[in-house]
């Protein structure tokens, strides 16, 4: 548990060094530096922002009181006291910090040795005695085990804590490491012993969905299991917990809501622009698995730092499911390897032959951008896999992610866009040539030749997380390139009509309401036009709109597709059209109480139904950054790859292709 505190301090320090938070004291307390990934920086930024928001709101609401107190439980090497003191916010507040005796002793030694820290505590800062590791006028550092409640109470009383003046308790990922009976006792003690009290809790939730399972496994491997999750798995359970333990007011937000509701728009934009970033799925998933809770009793005026005047959709209500679909590992004759990846693309190049290219995943025992192409072939009811022989592949593939592959004939596919790193320019186009006929039962019989292109349409291809969809205009085939991201624009809303034979962009008139810019959306060919659904918009918020780019005699027209009930906003899903129905598969949304399964939209009536996916698998099925191929004759959906970097919990890649039988939900009614 102490190890998690040290790792957390390093992550906070790295976020401060990159400008996410303004904190010059962290480095003095932590000492060493370790550079973390942008995803981890964002995660620790929102944690720090939530704590600071609630702490400063408490100080503001209690400024008319002659004295107030803050008690930080399991404070570790946190710099809260020094930041508040430096900002001049502790005129009448004493900060108490509690942690294991050896942690408190180390921190006390650091403060005494560091002039800038000891100067802030003040000249009367004196060496503590016994469990009081450090004692200043407005700062007390105590070494005591939180689970020993009677000892904690005795030490706090000795240090001067007063039961009758307003107090804020802070527990920032602390109580969950204690057995529930002990953490419950702390919550109840705080409510019973203090007449005017506030409690700030920041912890994990939703242990049973795929991301939650990866999160739990990570902490179990660190021998620091999250005890509270089984009994208090969600916001409602945590709220009930506090009410039952004696608190009279309690509000909870997940961190997606907190970022949207309690973080000003200009501050959101500042953070989003700090570093090249392309892990939106994991950012939103991390935020949906952490919450901030603010409880109070006896406070006048009432302490409600998490109630916002902004009208933002509440994302944690129950999602109505029309039914469920069972996921099963696809039938195979032999082990299928090489498909543990995300950000790749899979395409049906011939009946029952699926080509998968690119992405980030496992190759030769390492995590890297994947160079090899893989093929899946269905023969006699079973899938076989193989690594494709590539010709002229040395420097032409560029190990790309988030590209598209469009099959234009029996022997030709066009690769458009993609990227290497989020800070690099988008990649251009490539032809993939493969034989018109091949042994449809032997994956090793398939070869692919890569042909570099420098067409006039190249600028249209310098994007990723876009879509490329076949449309027909006046009998001619075009690829409709739409949306995505680029090295210059974080989200694109433009489009191009790429003539598939000449590989040049053609200007075709488009009328109607223009969809807002988006990336990570889905696009499907339908009736000569394109269906665009969902995506992530300019404010990094999922979109729930569906548009149809309809073929007219003189051009195309954007039309909105009204769905009822409204489609829950989502992105990073895949999509297919079958028999007048649009299928949206997986993805990420901001409802933390459930994960997206399969949405079925009737394109005639607009009826929109969500179906849950029942996983009878030995591993968590993460349905974002995946690919899917629909086999209409069998009404079978094959899901390939998917997953990503699960915050600081490690990388999860779906290990095997998964089959969904959709015959029940696609039956005509």
TrEMBL record:
It comes from Corythaixoides concolor (Grey go-away-bird). GO terms for molecular function: tRNA methyltransferase activity. It is an enzyme of class 2 (transferase). The gene is Lcmt2. Interacts with RNF144B/IBRDC2. This is tRNA wybutosine-synthesizing protein 4. InterPro entries: Gal_Oxase/kelch_b-propeller, Kelch-typ_b-propeller, Ppm1/Ppm2/Tcmp, SAM-dependent_MTases_sf. Belongs to the methyltransferase superfamily. LCMT family. Its EC number is 2.1.1.290, 2.3.1.231. One of its GO terms (biological process) is tRNA methylation.
């Amino acid at each position: 548990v102490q190890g998690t505190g040290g790792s957390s301090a390093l992550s906070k320090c790295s976020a401060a060094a990159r400008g996410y938070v303004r904190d010059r004291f962290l480095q003095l307390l932590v000492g060493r530096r370790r550079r973390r990934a942008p995803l981890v920086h964002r995660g620790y930024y929102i944690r720090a922002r939530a704590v600071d928001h609630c702490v400063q709101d408490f100080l503001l609401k209690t400024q008319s009181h002659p004295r107030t107190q803050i008690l930080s439980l399991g404070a570790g090497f946190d710099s809260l006291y020094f930041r508040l003191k430096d900002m001049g916010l502790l005129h009448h507040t004493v900060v108490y910090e509690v942690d294991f005796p050896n942690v408190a002793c180390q921190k006390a030694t650091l403060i005494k040795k560091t002039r800038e820290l000891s100067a802030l505590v003040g000249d009367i800062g004196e060496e503590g005695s016994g469990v009081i590791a450090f004692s200043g006028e407005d700062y007390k550092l105590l070494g005591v085990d939180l689970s020993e409640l009677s000892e904690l109470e005795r030490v706090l009383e000795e240090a001067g804590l007063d039961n009758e003046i307003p107090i804020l308790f802070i527990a920032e990922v602390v109580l969950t490491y204690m057995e529930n009976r002990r953490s419950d006792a702390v919550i109840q003690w705080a409510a019973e012993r203090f007449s005017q009290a506030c409690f700030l809790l920041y912890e994990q939730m939703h242990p049973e969905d795929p991301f939650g399972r990866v999160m739990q496994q990570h902490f179990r491997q660190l021998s620091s299991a999250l005890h509270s999750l089984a009994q208090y798995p969600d916001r409602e359970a945590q709220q009930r917990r506090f009410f039952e333990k004696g608190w009279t007011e309690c509000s909870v937000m997940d961190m997606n809501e907190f970022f949207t509701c309690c973080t000003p728009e200009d501050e959101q934009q500042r953070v989003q622009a700090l570093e090249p970033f392309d892990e939106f799925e994991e950012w939103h998933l991390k935020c949906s698995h952490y919450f901030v809770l603010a409880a109070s009793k006896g406070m006048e005026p009432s302490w409600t730092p998490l109630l916002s005047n902004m009208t933002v959709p509440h994302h944690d209500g129950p999602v109505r499911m029309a039914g469920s679909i069972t996921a099963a590992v696809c039938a195979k004759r032999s082990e299928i390897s090489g498909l543990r990846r995300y950000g790749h693309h899979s395409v049906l190049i011939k009946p029952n032959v699926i080509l998968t290219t690119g992405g980030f995943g496992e190759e030769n025992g390492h995590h890297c951008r994947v160079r090899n192409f893989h093929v899946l072939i269905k023969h006699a009811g079973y899938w076989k896999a193989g690594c494709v022989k590539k010709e002229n592949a040395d420097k032409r593939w560029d190990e790309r992610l988030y590209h598209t592959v469009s099959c234009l004939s029996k022997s030709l596919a066009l690769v458009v866009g993609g990227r290497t790193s989020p800070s690099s320019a988008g990649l251009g186009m490539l032809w993939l040539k493969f034989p018109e006929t091949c042994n449809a039962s032997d994956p090793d019989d398939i070869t692919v030749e890569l042909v570099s292109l420098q067409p006039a349409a190249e600028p249209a291809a310098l994007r990723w997380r876009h879509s490329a969809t076949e449309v027909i205009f006046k009998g001619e085939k075009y690829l409709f390139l739409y949306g995505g991201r680029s090295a210059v624009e974080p989200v694109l809303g433009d489009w191009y009509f790429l003539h598939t034979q000449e590989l040049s962009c053609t200007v075709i008139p488009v009328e109607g309401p223009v969809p807002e810019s988006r990336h990570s959306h889905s696009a499907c060919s339908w009736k000569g036009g394109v269906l665009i659904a969902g995506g992530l918009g300019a404010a990094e918020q999922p979109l729930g709109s569906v548009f149809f780019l309809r073929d007219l005699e003189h051009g195309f027209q954007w039309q909105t597709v009204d769905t009822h009930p409204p489609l829950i906003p989502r992105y990073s899903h895949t999509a297919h059209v079958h028999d007048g129905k649009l299928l949206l598969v997986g993805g990420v949304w901001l409802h933390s109480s459930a994960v997206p399964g399969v949405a079925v939209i009737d394109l005639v009536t607009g009826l929109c139904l969500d179906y849950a996916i029942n996983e009878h698998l030995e591993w968590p099925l993460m349905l974002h950054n995946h690919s899917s191929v629909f086999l209409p004759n069998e009404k079978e959906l094959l899901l390939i790859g998917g997953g990503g970097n699960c915050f600081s919990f490690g990388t999860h890649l779906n290990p095997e292709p998964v089959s969904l039988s959709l015959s029940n939900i696609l039956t005509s009614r």
